[in-house]
Design goal:
Strand content: over 45%
Structural class: mainly beta
Shape: globular
Number of strands: 32
Largest sheet: 4 strands, antiparallel
Number of helices: 1
Helix content: 10-25%
Strand order of the largest sheet: 1-2-3-4
Radius of gyration: 30 Å
Distance between the termini: 81 Å
């Protein structure tokens, strides 16, 4: 008889027991870790809920804060002392972000209107994202504006409605249009108006358009916009000449803030920077004026200071306009190359300022076209970059600066906070750039060669 082979299995049983014990220990460890994590989550959620109750009970005590203001509040909740510390900063240019830290651990944020704003905080006020550049994946949609025969000169966009000024090619064609661009493939003109030989620039405030024109008869036009009449002319104004023999000028740039309309003109024998009181739009009152020495190309004003770009030696000038009747130059910037190049465009974002200028026809590497100041109070942290195509439009958010250029295959350039390191990305666009604006999470580039907008967003 043949007997089967006999194997010693005692070692195998011992290994099985050791494996079972290890798995058991691991299981207990996992249970302990899960229990610990669950307990931590429970404690965090409980504390957050408690701190949220505290914040909501005292949130109104942090309203009305202004940028850089800090408020501290100590309260007792469930017999425990809790500190609330609030810090305010700008959220864009017209709103305030307040961050309230409760108990030193949990922070709540709220965004409110600037408490001392005099401008109409209606749906016509732009609210641009503070973070436009989410990824580097760009989406560009062309929007051809119907019924336009001339060059687009200025634009604002509010909630898929575009407000566009035009240097019309034909006398009877409109020089200002309001266009519904919700459907990029089928834009629809809501209203239009013909006021003269063409508009150069405008500011949209509430339901009014404050514009400067290329007319020597009436350089300033105020348009009303309502559902019943659409666009209609409310007021015209002729700039005062130094003497009856002085040839009149034409408007070139404008900005409206705090009830004042800042008007820039072409170079002439009068003052190129003029302040008009438009707090009552039906009764325009001249206030102050200032000699710039060249054509004013762009104006931005925030909280008592007007920043002016021009085609003269000082290509950006900071003007104190706290007393509108007596504008005073605070500071000026004279970059190399001013005899060939001109200041062109400005962007102001959360106390930072960016200046773009033209290239002057050919590239000199030491004569930069893009300049940025991290703060304007006082001016500090300047950086710059050489841009052969010049800068014709600028939009800034908290981390990036977007520049519309006429540099071939790099018509849109994206920079970080430090200009001197160069663009982090460039994108080709079939446009001869003229301007760049933002609304929400989108930007709009104006093409000066065709009546086309390019809607730009990043996925």
């Amino acid at each position: 008889m043949i007997y089967p082979k006999s194997y010693n299995t005692r070692g195998m049983i011992l290994i099985d027991i050791m494996i079972a014990l290890s798995v058991g220990v691991l299981f207990v460890a996992v249970l302990f870790e899960s229990s610990s994590t669950a307990r931590s989550l429970f404690v965090w959620s409980r504390d957050r809920s408690r701190f949220m109750d505290i914040y909501e009970a005292h949130a109104d005590e942090f309203e009305g804060m202004v940028p850089s203001e800090v408020r501290t509040l100590s309260v007792v909740h469930d017999a425990t002392p809790v500190d609330l510390v609030a810090r305010a900063r700008w959220y864009g240019n017209d709103r305030i972000e307040t961050e309230v830290t409760v108990g030193g651990t949990v922070t709540f944020s709220a965004v409110r209107a600037y408490p001392f704003a005099e401008r109409d905080e209606s749906v016509y006020t732009p609210i641009c994202s503070v973070d436009l550049y989410r990824t580097g994946v760009i989406r560009v949609v062309p929007i051809l504006i119907p019924g336009i025969s001339g060059e687009l000169t200025d634009i604002e966009v509010r909630n898929t409605t575009a407000y566009i000024s035009v240097d019309s090619a034909r006398v009877s064609d409109p020089d200002f249009v309001v266009v519904d661009i919700a459907s990029s493939s089928d834009p629809r003109i809501i209203s239009s108006i013909h006021t003269g030989p063409g508009m150069s620039s405008f500011s949209l405030v509430g339901r009014r358009i404050f514009a400067v024109t290329q007319s020597t008869v009436a350089q300033v036009q105020i348009l009303g916009l309502d559902d019943a009449q659409g666009l209609h002319l409310e007021q015209s104004y002729v700039l005062v000449r130094p003497s009856t023999t002085t040839p009149p000028t034409v408007g070139s740039a404008t900005f409206v803030a705090d009830g004042m309309m800042f008007v820039g003109t072409e170079k002439w024998q009068g003052n190129e920077f003029i302040v008009l009181d438009v707090s009552d739009p039906l009764r325009i009152v001249p206030r102050g004026m200032l000699e710039i020495g060249g054509k004013v190309t762009d104006i931005i004003s925030h909280h008592g200071t007007a920043y002016v770009t021009d085609a003269a030696a000082y290509q950006m000038i900071a003007v104190d306009v706290t007393d509108p009747s007596d504008p005073v130059v605070q500071n000026s910037f004279e970059p190399p190359g001013w005899s060939r190049q001109e200041g062109k465009t400005l962007s102001y974002f959360e106390e930072g300022l960016t200046l773009g200028r033209t290239s002057g026809g050919f590239d000199i590497r030491s004569e930069h076209e893009l300049f940025s100041w991290a703060s304007t109070s006082p001016p500090s942290g300047i950086s710059s970059w050489n841009m052969p195509g010049g800068a014709y439009g600028i939009v800034t958010d908290r981390m990036h600066t977007f520049v519309a250029s006429r540099q071939r295959d790099a018509e849109l350039q994206v920079f970080g906070r430090d200009m001197s390191t160069g663009p982090i990305a460039t994108y080709p666009l079939p446009a001869l750039a003229r301007g760049l604006v933002c609304d929400g999470d989108r930007m709009y580039m104006v093409d000066s060669s065709t009546p086309t907008l390019y809607e730009i967003s990043f996925n």
